[in-house]
Amino acid sequence: MALDAETGEYRWSYEPPPFSSLGVRGDDAEVVRRFMQKHDSPWCLPDSWSQNTISGDGTVYAGHQDGYLYAVRDENGDGKISSAEVSRHDLGSAFQASHAIAPGMFAAAPCDGGLYVWRY
What CATH number should be reported for the domain whose range is 2-119? Predict the structure, then answer.
């Protein structure tokens, strides 16, 4: 849900496709590897959404328990999010950490490890 920063007034909201797995995506596939590598915990156990990151143009970036990184922006300002205003990238695993934005760069780190960096 997006709110106006000054007034707290509702701007728009978005709901992803239903997710019905018993655990977050990636935990079931990675638990044995994490256990064998003696991680502190073989499970990621993140929240359903990562901490959101908002770019200067108002795009909200958020990782979801379904393993997708979402980019959502109400481009036409009508208060409704259409499918054309949402893009997502499949990283195959849920997210624990927040994302980072720097001039011309975006970075995300899903639970299964690695750091994904995009230049734009």
Answer: 2.40.128
